[in-house]
Amino acid sequence: MTMHAHYMGLGGPALRVAIGLTAGLCFLSFGYGQGDIGGLIVLRDFRTRFLGWGNEQIVMDHRIGVLDGSTIASWNLGCLAGAVFTIFLGDRLGRRGSIITGLVIEIIGKLIQGTTFSLGQYIAGRVIAGVGNGFLASTIPAWQAECLKTHRRGTLLLVSFGSCITLGVAIAYWVVYAFAFTQPSSIAWRFPILFSLFFVLPALLIVIWMPESPRWLLLQAREKEAIRVLSALNELPEDHEDIRREILQIKYAVKHMASTSATGAFSNGEYRYLHRVLLAVLLQIMQQFTGVNLFIQYLGIMFWQQLHYRPFISMALAGACSTVFFIASLLAVILIDRYWGRRTLTIFGASGMLGCMIILTITAYIGDQGNDRGFLAMTAFLFLYVCFFSVGWQGMSWMWSVELIPLSIRGPANALSTAANWLANFVVVISGPELLLYSKWRTYIMYAVFNAAIIPTIYFFYPETGGRSLEEVDLVFKQANDRGQPWFTVVKAAREEPKWFDRNGDPTDSFGGSSEKGDLDFDKVQSSSNEISPDSNYRATRQSTSREARDVDGEHSAPAPSVRRTHSSERSARSRSRG
């Protein structure tokens, strides 16, 4: 019996926690990079040195708005560039290699920013750090999703993409606020910039010892390494039946989908490649067009310039608002796999943001007429808005887009959807000061319309992927393709197709068999295809192809579905006896 490998002496749940910790540190840095500039731009010493306006009583004009927008958006532009680089380099470097590359680049960018003496150097550092973050944001969702178990994937991914990003934003605003009291010393802004190294340096040290994605390894025909990684992740011997079964599932996806040509990978076949890529891209664009980064990256400026609070009070309110932002994200972690799922949470979040935008329009108009009560009401609904976004959308677009994209193109396609997110992010951020300066309350009408459009888009076009393996999602889209009009039938296909795994991650009666017939005998499939549903034909083909792949390799075939469930039942019984 071959015992499982260890990484840093870890295996099983402990190893998955270490992977989650690495992802969490990277996304803490992500959130920190979004939040620090929102506080720094309110500091008198920072404004005087780099932006040329240090008077607390000054009112923003067109020149200041363009300068602020360009400075803040430079990071987003770098993130866009990093995501584009990942499209072409990601599969060559691998998931882990891309993460290491991104962390090194981000460290260089942060050091340039923290040691700057000019606006040009500061912006260059922001762009470089953004490139590194673009690599990370494009790669970590796929890496972590491909290393997690199906029944816990949503919860654990939302901790990284949701709670860690929002916690990073909150930490950034409070660190800037704390060091604001050291003005006029340059430490007031240098230390907050360099503080994010406390996240990226440990992440770099840990990820070097972490495993590569087993799915990426199989894409590279490195099966022995993939088996070793799956053995460690599941804390089972390499020759264990469960490891062989999971390898079979992934090998089938690789064998079947890797035959797709470079151009065919983004065209619609029976597995709806282009359809799925477009859903992922649109999802990331919709996340930004909720208007979130109009608020998150301009919180300090909004409280100061639009709502007329003094600078120090504005920074404190920004810190409080970002803290609420983080706390609300924890609610999504609780709800995602236990109760609501992807579709319900995103529709709930968009509906809440729509209501907030409508009220913000009214209160902003009242405030502009000289009634300060309008600004007080705006403050309350800004807090409420970030709650709805955090619950419904903060981590959802990153997680859901990975789940929608098929394995063979997951690297470049996820980078493409991430690039779409950063492009939309850049548009929102660069236009933010001008919109707030000239459109004022009308700005909120525009984002109210965007949120209203999101609700039916999610309802009619996005299938629920919660509780399904990444390979199982392929079947859902194939079912929709077989039914005709897949753009409109994929939601129904996802609703009706039985799940392969239960809430505990154990195989169900539908695993490996027909959703209509139960267990599927391999010999019967070969001799009597007329009695099997289209769904069964697909699964029979999957099972047959997987067996052939193993026979060619000189290995044993997978056990029958009934045997697989016996192993599952034995594990459950052992678990109950231990309890």
UniProtKB/TrEMBL annotation:
Parts of the chain that traverse the membrane: 72-90, 156-181, 187-210, 277-300, 312-335, 347-367, 373-393, 413-432, 444-462
Residue stretches of biased makeup (Basic and acidic residues): 545-556
Protein name: Sugar transporter family protein
Chief location: membrane
Species classification: Eukaryota, Fungi, Dikarya, Ascomycota, Pezizomycotina
GO MF term set: carbohydrate:proton symporter activity
Region feature Disordered, mapped onto this chain: 499-579
First and last residue of the signal peptide: none
GO cellular component entries: membrane
Localization of this protein: Membrane
Domain Major facilitator superfamily (MFS) profile: 19-466
Organism: Neohortaea acidophila
